[in-house]
């Protein structure tokens, strides 16, 4: 504990303020979900309307009296604001109310701390917490900040505040060093996948849109999924076989939220790098959410902030089981899949998502018939090994005729391995001109 505060409790009075500025507004419904996800019990909600926050207490003296009465009436030990508080506002409120005060950033950090499971996830959360706490030290140690002066009456040489600052800086530096190592390891893995020409697909989306449920349904993984915000934090990678493409690596990333604190985006940069380097982003959207367009905008803002806004995207409208809607694929003007409507919960439309992934990721797929001589058994075996043979029959002389469909890249690699030219087996319409 970096400064003396009253003990925290689980029963909380919530505070939400409406501001005329649309960009400064928060969603009270989402706020209640955040509180529930953190494990707190919401006793009551205090609402207010202001043109701008009060510089000292955020809500002003009148609402402060009302808030104090609510704490007594509900015997609550905690106040949670649906807004970011400055260090001085937070300290002033705690002094006036004699209880713990938490702002929106602190609430999200608490949820993250509960959900992180891997070593990397815990490091990222701790870094964000320390960056957050470091701005609040001054208000906590004002009683120890002054040093006595004069001969024989000097202080210990370093105040408690300075000691804590030094310890914080040391720990933050150590975490940055460890996370740099994690980033290097991830970069090595990404380079290895690139050398093997394995595409990566990252699931992104607003928190609680159903990303982990969809991830589990596609990859038969066992990632924790629940109807709550930030159910999963730690990135998970799994192999997925896609028709006409072969194996791809699918990544489940942390969910986004409205006004996601910038420090959290910075702390989770290593995790979000999977989205930046992906061949395709699958943006999972809760189709039944009335605020889905706002949520889509928030996700796009974060993607732009981390530099992933230029990565090709496939939208997935999830949770159609809550709507009177059938699975379908919406296509753009060029006929390419743009949006897939499905339900990850009951599995309807998953086949359409597989189809859309195949169309979006397939790189120059070739489809032709191939007549082989008996001595070309290695070529026949290689095509079967690639799962490229759709049908096989024999002519009157007993020679196998294969109906083949596979990426041109895989066919070229197979022919190079056998020491033969690919074009000699392709019909003229599929041969690449020499100037290419």
Structure description:
The protein is an alpha/beta fold and 436 residues long. It has 14 helices and 14 strands. It has 3 domains: 11-102, Rossmann fold; 197-361, P-loop containing nucleotide triphosphate hydrolases (Rossmann fold, 3-Layer(aba) Sandwich), CATH 3.40.50.300; 365-430, Alpha-Beta Plaits (2-Layer Sandwich), CATH 3.30.70. It has a 7-stranded mixed β-sheet, with helices on both faces. Strands 2-1-3-4 form a 4-stranded parallel β-sheet, sandwiched between helices. Helix 4 packs antiparallel against helix 5 and helix 13 (377-385) runs antiparallel to helix 14 (408-418).
Rg value: 29 Å
Helix and strand pattern: EHEHEHEHHHHEHEEHHEHEEEHEHEEH
CATH architecture of the largest domain: 3-Layer(aba) Sandwich
What portion of residues is helical? 25-40%
* CATH superfamily descriptor of the largest domain: P-loop containing nucleotide triphosphate hydrolases
Q: Structural class of the helices, strands and pairings? A: alpha/beta
Instruction: Using the alpha-carbon principal axes, give the shape.
Output: elongated
Task: Please indicate the percent range of residues in DSSP E strands (runs of 2 or more).
Answer: 15-25%
DSSP summary: helix tally: 14
**CATH domain fold name of the largest domain:** Rossmann fold
């Amino acid at each position: 504990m970096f400064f003396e505060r009253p003990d925290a409790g689980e029963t909380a009075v919530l505070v939400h303020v409406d501001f005329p500025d649309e960009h400064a507004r928060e969603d009270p419904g989402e706020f209640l979900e955040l509180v529930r996800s953190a494990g707190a019990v919401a006793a009551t909600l205090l609402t207010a309307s202001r043109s701008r926050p009060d510089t000292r207490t955020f809500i002003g003296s009148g609402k402060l009296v009302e808030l104090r009465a609510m704490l007594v009436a509900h015997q609550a030990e905690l106040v949670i604001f649906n807004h970011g508080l400055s260090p001085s506002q937070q300290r002033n409120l705690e002094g006036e109310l004699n209880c713990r005060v938490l702002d929106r950033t602190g609430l999200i950090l608490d949820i993250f701390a509960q959900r992180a499971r891997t070593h990397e996830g815990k490091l990222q959360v701790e870094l964000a917490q320390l960056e957050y706490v470091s701005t609040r030290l001054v208000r906590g140690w004002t009683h120890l900040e002054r040093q006595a002066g004069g001969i024989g009456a000097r202080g210990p040489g370093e105040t408690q505040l300075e000691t804590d600052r030094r310890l914080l800086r040391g720990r933050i530096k150590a975490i940055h060093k460890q996370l740099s190592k994690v980033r290097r390891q991830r970069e090595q893995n990404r380079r290895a996948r690139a050398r093997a020409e394995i595409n990566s697909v990252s699931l992104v989306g607003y928190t609680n849109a159903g990303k982990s449920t969809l991830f589990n349904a596609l990859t038969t993984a066992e990632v924790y999924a629940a109807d709550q915000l930030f159910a999963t934090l730690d990135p998970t990678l799994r192999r997925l076989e896609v028709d006409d493409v072969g194996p791809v690596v699918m990544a489940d990333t942390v969910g986004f939220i409205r006004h996601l604190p910038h420090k959290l985006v910075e702390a989770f940069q290593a995790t979000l790098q999977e989205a930046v380097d992906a061949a395709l982003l699958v943006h999972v959207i809760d189709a039944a959410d009335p605020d889905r367009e706002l949520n889509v905008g928030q996700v796009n803002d974060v993607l732009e902030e981390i530099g992933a806004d230029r990565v090709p995207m496939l939208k997935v409208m999830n949770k159609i089981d809550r709507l009177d809607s059938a699975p379908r694929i919406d296509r753009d003007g060029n006929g390419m899949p743009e949006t897939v409507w499905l339900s990850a919960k009951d599995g309807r439309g998953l086949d359409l998502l597989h189809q859309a992934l195949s169309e979006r990721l397939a790189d120059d797929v070739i489809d032709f018939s191939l007549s082989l001589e008996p001595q070309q058994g290695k070529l026949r075996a290689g095509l079967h090994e690639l799962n490229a043979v759709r049908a096989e029959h024999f002519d009157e002389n007993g020679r196998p005729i294969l109906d083949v469909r596979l990426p041109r890249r895989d066919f070229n690699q197979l022919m190079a391995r056998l020491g033969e030219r690919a074009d000699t087996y392709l019909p003229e319409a599929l041969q690449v001109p020499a100037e290419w």
